[in-house]
From TrEMBL, chains A, B:
This is LacI family transcriptional regulator. Pfam families: LacI, Peripla_BP_3. InterPro entries: HTH_LacI, LacI/GalR-like_sensor, Lambda_DNA-bd_dom_sf, Peripla_BP_I. One of its GO terms (molecular function) is DNA-binding transcription factor activity. SMART domains: HTH_LACI. Keywords: DNA-binding, Transcription, Transcription regulation. Residues 10-64 form the HTH lacI-type domain. PROSITE patterns: HTH_LACI_1, HTH_LACI_2. CDD domains: HTH_LacI, PBP1_LacI.
DNA sequence: GCCCGAGTTGTGAGCGTTAACAATGTAGCT
DNA sequence: AGCTACATTGTTAACGCTCACAACTCGGGC
């Protein structure tokens, strides 16, 4: 823990002096370059240890023109999905030797996204990942001047923008099909908010499954992802005895629907089946345990980084179309769905 | 969008040339220093706009010896609590003009924390916040060489370490008192994992309230915060009809307890009252809606940053004892708690 | 007309690192 | 012994910015 004598942090020159070599040799050791005699190497390492030296990343970044920082723009990281994606991103980035700098948005508008990207640009990030679940976000992104390369995650396809997303439509299709297979005439839907790409894809998947099966496509309402909105929509659904199956666009809203059904005296799954989407950790412990669709948020984050790194490496961006990676979903069957009740 | 002519990003000198001034004047404009003639200021701004110039933060950091980056070490950011705290930290830091670099740990040990701090030190952070909910973390922190200043958040008190935390004990006391006031003979407890400071404080608060009231202090089991563990412990609790009130150390485990009670045919709150801790957004929509204790995670994050900034400013660290900030809790009464049933 | 001071602008030297190149030393060969 | 080839080390100049200071302007008072 010996300090450099005077107050300031030790720099490479200090290490060099202590080890009796030039600063360049220290640099070589630090960067693992070849052609350093073992004995020298050892002396340098000892000096580094003795002084408690560590490299000044700003100077390094300045000289190499690489900041080693990746930017992340996120939205409502308090939710399970974004939080998990963020975690995946952070882990993958660190493993690849990058730092991660994040900006959380309170609202997604062209303006806030612009600001966030400018802010990250100020930090000289080498690339950016934007968790962009809303249509507005994807639109804001295209043709915006800002840090490159840029990859969108959890967003919908966009021209000229590399994207990684979960196969929402397939998941919704899958679970709707499941409900239909259980003998339900049709399946009602509680959708996510308008403008959210995930919500739209889930509607599309649901509608598709219904149409394929020749089932009627009922009206549906939009919630805002919160349990409360699910509860409110759930109450109107619970009031109609002809409804025997509901696919809710996320688990939190499904929780609200479950409660509404319970209050109205409709038993789940005996009278009505309810299914969710996301498979949050709590879903297994709802009453009853929720049938839902698992999506691997962490994988989305990891692939996002992997695409970004590829772009960072690759000489030029792929000419024709931006790469699109799709992460599959998985049906999780539990006890909130069952055979349709006998029509009496 | 005019580029500097050749390929590379424009630098201050380019702006200076275009505006017909010296690089120093550009710097002055950029930093909002006084004594720049309005006309000059305008020319510089125009040049910046024209070139799409933005400051190279590495060079700036090198020259000023300030990286403008704050490090955050977090643990399981997928949970509502840490995620909210992280959000509070990020917002507050950005507002103060700092960037935030985060490291998420998979496990909290002396070793992983050391690594995380080393990693952040490599990035020349100006200070660190560690979200350290476990005893091991706080211990690992004291007397560890690494980036300074350092503040711990959500951890327990530690010597020589500034800390911001929620008044867990008071919250636990409050809710136990509430249950007692409803006429319950005593209150059972489902604790969080050993080694977690929050869990320990909640046990202490619960025990204190019981002792003050002269109530018996029952045995209690440790869960792991997950709904599943709550469910498992809940089953043994549900099997004993003499138990009429349970205080569960967090909402997720309370969810599991709720389910166990339901399965065992014990009605909540008619037969048994159940209370949680945290007030996650879903708690209001459990069946029944959960009485719980609200804690302001965001505020913890904000205060953490505020303490850190004060330390960064202040000449020296406060001599005697490290500052400790305590964030209060608030009781949230819903329908999972009620009068004790008539003892028949 | 000249000098002074405040307001404005320019100059040069770092900040701590890496990159390019020059200068050693050291074997191995003829 | 003399030379070459290679391994090892040192030297110098960027990288793009801020800081300290020097050098100009331009009025007003004598």
């Amino acid at each position: 823990m010996a300090t450099a004598g005077n107050g300031r942090d030790p720099v490479m020159a200090d290490v060099a002096r202590v080890a009796g070599v030039s600063h360049q040799t220290v640099s070589r050791v630090l960067n693992g370059l070849p052609n350093v005699k073992p004995a020298t190497h050892e002396r340098v390492v000892a000096a580094i240890e003795e002084l408690g030296y560590h490299r000044n990343s700003s100077a390094r970044a300045l000289a190499t023109r690489r900041s080693q920082v990746l930017g992340v723009v996120a939205f409502d990281t308090t939710l399970y999905g974004p939080a998990s994606t963020l975690l995946g991103i952070e882990r993958a980035a660190r493993q690849a030797g990058y730092f991660v700098s994040i900006v959380s948005l309170t609202a997604i508008t062209r303006e806030t996204i612009r600001e966030a990207l400018d802010y990250l640009a100020e930090q000289s990030v080498e690339g950016c990942i934007v968790i962009a679940p809303k249509r507005a976000a994807v639109e804001a992104l295209t043709g915006l001047r800002g840090p490159r390369p840029l990859v969108a995650v959890e967003g919908g396809v966009a021209p000229d923008l590399p994207v990684v997303c979960v196969d929402q439509a397939a998941g919704a299709h899958q679970i709707t099909r499941h409900l239909l297979d259980l003998g339900h005439r049709t399946v009602w839907h509680v959708a996510g908010p308008r403008d959210w790409l995930e919500a739209e894809s889930r509607v599309a998947g649901w509608r598709g499954a219904l149409e394929e099966a020749g089932a009627a496509v009922p009206e549906y309402a939009h919630g805002d992802w919160s349990p409360r909105s699910g509860y409110e929509i759930g109450r109107t659904l619970a009031a109609r005895p002809d409804i025997t199956a509901v696919f809710v666009a996320n688990d939190q809203m499904a929780l609200g629907v479950l409660r509404a059904m319970g209050e109205a005296g409709r038993r789940v799954p005996a009278d009505v089946s309810v299914a969710g989407f996301d498979d949050v950790p709590e879903a297994e412990f709802f009453s009853p345990p929720l049938t839902t669709v698992y999506q691997d948020f962490g994988e989305v984050g990891r692939r996002g980084i992997s695409v970004l790194l590829r772009l960072l490496d690759g000489a030029a961006e792929p000419a024709a179309h931006a790469p699109i990676e799709v992460v599959p979903t998985r049906l999780v069957l539990r006890s909130s769905t069952a055979q349709a009740p006998d029509p009496t």
